[in-house]
Amino acid sequence: MASIRPGRYTADHDGEVVVFLIGMRINRLRKVRQWLPTALAMPPMLRELSEHPEKGLLGFESFRRGRTILQVMYWRSFDDLERFARNPDDPHLPAWRAFNRRVGTAGDVGIFHETYVVPAQASESIYNNMPSFGLAEATGAVEVGRKGQAARYRMGAADIDEPAEPAPV
Questions:
Q1: In 10 A of CB 35, how many CB atoms?
Q2: Cα-atom radius of gyration of the chain, to the nearest Å?
Q3: Would you say residue 165 has pLDDT above 80?
Q4: How far, in Å, CA of 103 to CA of 19, rounded?
C-alpha cells in the first residue's frame, strides 16, 4: 500500500503544465484480437518516457472504470508531447498507425485523448492525508503553507492568503 503523507500538501510546480488524458474503451469484449494489441501498446510508451525524462513526461497515473482504461499524464510542454507523438522512432506513431490499419472505424475498440495546456498560475492543487498523487507525484510536493493556505492565493488570483477555514494547528 502506498505511504500516506499526513497533513495538507500541494504540488511543487509553478510553471505551465500540460495535462494529457489518453485511453481506450473496449466496445466489443469478444474482439480480443482488436483490443488486446491496443491495450498492449501503452506499456512500451510509458517505459520509453519513464526511461527518458528529457522527452518531457513529468509523471502519470493509470485508472480503469468498466471497459475504459485511462492514463492521466503531466507533460512539461505541448511541444514535448507533440514531438513524442509524431516521432517515428518513438513507440507512439507506429502503434497509432497499427491501430488505424487493424481497427480503423470498425468500432470494436475506441481510443481517445484530451489535451489541456495549463498556463502558470492557472491551476492549484491540495492533497490531505493522501499518498503522493497527481501533479504532486509528477513534480514533487511541499507543505501547503509554503504556497499559501487559500486556493485563490495559490493560483495567483488574490494578494492576501485568506483560507475559507482556519488552518489546522
A1: 24
A2: 19
A3: no
A4: 27
How buried is residue 24: exposed, middle or buried, by Cβ count under 10 Å (0-12/13-18/19+)?
A: buried
List beta partners, residue 25: 68, 110
Q: What is the pLDDT of residues 2-32, one digit of tens each?
A: 799 999 999 999 899 999 999 999 999 999 9
Q: Is 47 helix (H, G, I), strand (E, B) or coil?
A: helix
pLDDT at residue 166, rounded to an integer:
62
Q: How far apart are CA 139 and CA 9, in angstroms?
A: 13
How much is the pTM? 0.89
User: In whole angstroms, what separates CA 134 from the centre of its chain?
Assistant: 7
Pick the CATH number of 17-118 from 3.40.50.10540, 3.50.50.100, 3.30.70.100, 3.30.70.20: 3.30.70.100
For residue 144, give the nearest of 130, 131, 125, 160 by alpha carbon. Answer: 125
Torsion of CA 128, 133, 134, 138, to 10 degrees: 120
Tell me the angle at which helices 92-102 and 32-51 cross, rounded to the nearest 10 degrees: 170
Predicted confidence (pLDDT) at residue 167 exceeds the cutoff of 80: no
